[in-house]
Amino acid sequence: MKKKRLIPFVMAAGLLLCSCSSQGAKRSIVHTENAPSAIGPYEQAIIIDNMVYTSGQIGLDPKTNTLVSGGIENETKQVLDNIGAVLNAANTSFNHVIKANIYLTDLNNFTKVNDIYASYFKDGNYPARSCVEISALPKGALIEIETIAYIN
Question: Which of 2, 5, 105, 146 falls 20 to 30 Å from 93 in CA-CA distance?
């Protein structure tokens, strides 16, 4: 009995994979002047079908491409403003973010980051999230955040 249930599932999954690969996913690049330009060989975000995958953002001022001063609070706000600009350019918003990854150079900043981060999500509509401490970030940044969102 178990084999009968498993075989149709495997066949259905195989057909689904074949269907996706034979039709090809729609891929497009997101770019906005309202967020910092990439500082390496990557895009600000990529859209695949109705999903948006943002590159990690650090607290760069999009006008000067330099790190904002003022510590973790100002960097966190700038990071989230940059992500908001990229999401907006992709025709979505923080309310459609389903996953966020936060990288901190010091986990002692967790509470400060959490308070600011929470203010960007309306009505407690929080995504799944990971937060880890790492040894260093580009340009001496204290925080980097990347997200995955959907376009409604």
Answer: 105
